Amino acid sequence: MGKRVAVVGASGAVGVEMLKTLEKRNFPVDEIRLLASSRSAGKTMQFKGTDVKIEELTKDSFKNIDIALFSAGGSISKEFCPIAAEKGAVVVDNSSAFRMDDSVPLVVPEVNPEDIKKHKGIIANPNCSTIIMVVALNPIYKLSKIKRIVVSTYQAVSGAGAAAMEECIEQTKSVLNGTPVAVDKFAYQIAFNLIPHIDVFTDNGYTKEEMKMVKETMKILHDPAIRISATTIRVPVLRSHSESIMIETEKKLSVNEIRNALKNAPGVVLQDDPSNKIYPMPLYTSEKYDVAVGRIREDLSSDNGICLWAVGDQLLKGAALNAVQIAELL
Confidence class of residue 68 from pLDDT cuts 50, 70 and 90? Predict the structure, then answer.
């Protein structure tokens, strides 16, 4: 039976992907309602070959809606997710508003699908970097508990939205043409540069983005004892986040055991043949659903350590696809 679905933040980078993903995966939609700010209201978007008009988001937008996919930022989610849930919709929220709320499940379908059952009207989509990491690490975690994770991320500009992608392109043109570079979306020029600063810095010297990876991973894996340190970096790549991950496991695991576990894992594609120059790259993971994992090797600096490299499209698996997969499980 078809569902009545609302997409909140429909005109944003993730909203556009949510719509495409619902269509591509043939999600049973009887009625689609596209909701956004007054700025976008009145414009149309295509869904299954039909023009659908964007409506302005109001408190009355969720009448008769079964599932509401939110990707319009934390403040909108805080205000409107409870309203949508109250009206009877199940909300899948892509913002950070409810992720650390104990009464809200934080779900990656390949990792902790059973947590969906605990929902009270709202389910949270984790941070894009967290999703990519836990999809890659969960098959290993099943072989042995992971005691420690050290991760550095190389995050695409689309993680900061459609306007940030445009800025990266325009800045690149300016640098190549020798004209002045306009900086707006980032603290510094991103073209031909990288910036070790995503979100705001907290008192411990880590950014909020880094602390999201720490806290969310503990919640998703139900393991508050796991020790995690993250450094998140913005790079001049348009799409797909990359992550260099070092883990320490309780049991000694061989590289082959890990390769075999990843080879058969849902949502993972193994690309690990360095002698033939096969390893994951943003160029080839963009617009793909799976998280690509490669460069798997023993960590020379610790006894039970393994290093690996994971890359995933953060607009899809890191956001829109994960939300639609949750809706499919519902």
Answer: very high
